[in-house]
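Morning F.,

Quick status update on the modeling queue. The single chain you submitted on Monday has been processed. Sequence for confirmation:
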Amino acid sequence: MDRSNNILLIRLKSIGDILFLLPAVHVVRENFPGAKITFLTSRENAALLEGFREVDEVITLDRVRFQSGNPKAILSEAFSLFCRLRGGKFSLVVDFQGYGETAWLAWLSGAPQRWGSVYSTGRRWAYTRGVTRNDNIHLVDWNLSLLQQCGLRPGKIVNEFVLPDSALNEARRFFAAQKLDTAKPTLFIQPFTSSPHKNWPLENYISIAGHWRARGVQVLFGGGPSERTLLEPARAADFSVAAGTPLLVSAGLMQLSTLVIGGVTGLLHLAVAMQKRVLMLVGYPAHEPGFPYQHHDWAVAPLTGGSIAEIQTGAVIETSERAFAELGAAK
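Structure tokens below.
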């Protein structure tokens, strides 16, 4: 394949799964240094691609329009997307998601080479190389395996998200507005995930926050727009709350913090990719092996092998004390 050709990578959702493509994007760039790399994702995740320094262009799919039930809006979005795909003149498409819709998008691109992650044999027709998905390894490792099985040279694993300066500056403004000092030790807590069974009780996080506030550490709670009401107990306890800030600004808040604590959620995976020290609370059974990626010792799990709710507050305090001590950031 001519290394000056255009390459399209497909992953529509979700935040964590898109972040798990960072090492794979690096491998693609290493193998095709002169190529233009385009990434197709859902519109709501487009901002995340600003931190993928090896991606040259982003194409978005507007799910809201497709789900609107308005035939005119659906046809308009579909035609626009088709024109973007064909207009890209892609020589290679890699579908990392492997859903029915992404298999169709890969095929509709018209690219002569189409590689894909295959869940169902019924979708193999869409690809010139379809590789059966292995759910028993971390998704980062599967993405790399897919590329290797399709003939790319593996290299050093680079899991690095580059935060835009604009997001970091906005985070600094938030710190100032909340009277937080960027020079002081700060604990960022992300209490909620997208799945209730992955959530540790909020009152436990507030207990952790109280422990560290008593020791002079600043505490900041993060969350999405839908979690403003859920985070009212933290606000009532006089903790700073950043609910509803844009994703990259939340990333900036974590970057300015010393330690990040939370469950298995995209924002924690983002912290790991920014090389921030995290404590990730993981319950059993472990649906996704090997979290946090490359830092399994940063996980906190119940000793009994039960659900995340069985993790003891004392165990998290003890582990966070060790983490702060390693960072030399708190007494």
